[in-house]
Amino acid sequence: MTDVVRATPAGLLCDAGGFHVDPSGATPLAVITHVHGDHLKAGSDRYLCAAPSLAFVRKRLGPDTRAEGIPYGEQVRLGEARVSFHPAGHVLGSAQVRIEAGGEVWVVSGDYKRAPDPTCAPFEVVPCDVFITEATFALPIYRWEDPGIVVAQILHWWNANREAGVASVLFCYAMGKAQRILAELAALTDRPALVHGAVEGLVELYRAAGVRMLPTLRVSETAKGRSFAGELILAPPASGGSTWMRRFGASRETAFASGWMRVRGTRRRKGVGRGFALSDHADWPALLRTVEETGARRVLVTHGYADELSRYLAERGVVASALATAYEGEGDLPE
Amino acid sequence: MKAFAALYDALDRTKSTNAKVAALVAYFSRAPAGDAAWALYFLTGRKIKRLIPSRVLWDLTREVTALPEWLLEHCYAAVGDFAEAMALLVEHQSAAVGTGSDLAFARWIEDRILSLKQMDAAAQREAVRGWWKELDAGQSFVLNKIITGEYRVGASATLVVRALAQVAGVPQATMAHRVMGDWPPTASFFTSLREDQPSGEIGSRPYPFFLASPLEQDVEGLGGREDWLAEWKWDGIRAQVVRRAGEVFLWSRGEELVTERFPEVAAAARALPDGTVLDGEILAYRDGVLPFAILQTRIGRQKLSPRIFAAAPAALMAYDLIEEGGADIRGLPLRERRARLEALLPAGPGVFLVSPIVLAPSWTALAAERLQARARNVEGLMLKRLSSPYGTGRRRGDWWKWKIDPYTVDAVLLYAHPGHGRRASLFTDYTFAVWDQGALVPVAKAYSGLSDAEIQELDAWVRRHTREKFGPTRAVEPMRVFEIAFEGIASSTRHKSGVAVRFPRIARARPDKPAAEADTLDSLKALLQ
Predict the structure, then answer these.
(1) What are phi and psi of B282, to 5 degrees?
(2) pTM for this predicted structure
(3) Which listed CATH number (2.40.50.140, 3.40.190.10, 3.40.50.10890, 3.40.50.720) goes with A147-276?
């Protein structure tokens, strides 16, 4: 029997359903797990995503994009396949794609995490025959602390910088991580945070979806020459080396919130003072637990440390192999 | 342990010099003297030698985590640091985190870590396994660094001295001298540092070495030729000979005592008057300077056989006198120190030689002399301002090293390996090869010379052009050519190519050159002369 989903140069293809999952190029029908840049690419004729993701797809690809949102759990028929979206817990609207075809159930996880996140629906275990899992952090050195502890550390860092009278610039991915931090902080303080324009546009969509976060103010809307002493500023990592940063003063403190910060070497390479290991991906124990809980008899692994996770699973008697996709790199993936 | 691990973390996570000094000042002001003494010991790069090999800890990590060896290797490659990888891997085993963190640092070292020396391997493993359970990842990391002797800190010795000088209220140069050399990491030693007159005798301590900076400007810009002393830049081991209180101490620049490695130098030093300190270079010497490769046969050997002594006799090429009659004369101008040095050491053959002055009357004539450097087995020229005092550290302006241009070879990138530290999980360590009868033979490993942007580009290229994986190492398609610079070449039986190059680094990428046009092993061997 042929595989329900297979790797092609354009990405994962489901022949029976006539669609690709998170294609890297132009396809007739793109089924999207979430809107991060390496999963959602422009150029396909038509897009299908989980309902809460639709607003983000339109924001990324334009309001005229032919896109449709399907509520979590609702089955739609695509060709010979039945397809449904299930929460992945990665960012708001992120989904695993369940595909039923030829008497088998396949699940494409997309990116996912098992840790609690106040901004999105928690990961749902979807029983399946074949599970295609991500492996961004699939090494046993990656174990996340309770996010509550990490967020308390962020607040502590901000408070210390406030006392010292300097700005706290926290780099984090504009989609998902920034809103998660703002939502977690909202439980601890009500001081407003300043945000980069790229973050604010997405914060608005999160607010529209009913996520409670700290009050935010766009940096570019503040008065010229304003002092940022004591403020918290959330900015995407790419703004780090730019002239945009100068306004926060030479004595500003910088930090980066990402799972990669678990390792000193990556933290030092990013050239930031502090690293907070806060990730939207599953850590090593969560990956193993998830693979087991799905009950899958076969596991395919993509992204990052795919070779390592599949070999480890195979040695433990799981039928597992790495699936070649266009996503490359066990190095510093954006998360 | 908690306070010291926190200090390590504070030094590690800031790039600001002032913040580092502030963290050190805060630690040294608050820590009990016994803890502070050990902290200073490690912060100044001292080690407790041969406690437990990394290998044993690594095996213990495998046992504790029950993970396969290959997976641990991949973890190590991603982290780039043994001690850190082990700490991250065993952290979740810590059922009783915190119970060990309140124990004083001196107690950790003296009652626990030092006791490892008396234990057999099984007892050592049990002890470390127990300690890991009591510490969080940051503290385990520091523990692992100490017991494997790989401790390095995010603060230079200069910053540590600056902070201590501030705490004690004494000038930095005074403090720099006080913490040099051999001292016991005890509470009383640390307390003595803070007193106006340290009660302990200066004893064996060398002076902080004065270091030269590479000359990057045009030599004419230094001013009048007559204001400068020119010497050859010797290619050996920089050392101070300390002759005090009837004893002789030989210190290398890494502040390591090497007295026993060079007994002929030590024996000759006994003839020096008491209260003398010389600065110079240990060389392999017989009727002239022998190549560094010959001196190397005496480094890293536990036992020195008569054969080795005969094959690589050592001498000291002295170029400065910094203590005379028990007085620190570093403040005198070089012109005066040099005159006293020449008066002290008789001319003629012997173990002590005085570094000859290169007498070229003009900069142009001197530049011509520099071209002879390679034939003389030296690295180039040293230029020292005749009016300069003997400074500390690498202070620019008075001492310059004017090295000869390196050899270069165009070689093909063959293997890439993930780097260490801040380069972990990036492919930054490269093996380069040249052609030999139609095949590529590895000749050099190089880690430095590329910019961050070039490293990023090459890292992505390596991932896309991997032919084969050997653990974390990638064999890549032989397509990319780089110009590799190196300082010397010697024949070697330990290398497949038959040659070993010294200090190889990447001079530049050669995108214009196809791999087929890279250099050959024969052209490399021609440099052996």
Answers:
(1) -80, 130
(2) 0.74
(3) 3.40.50.10890
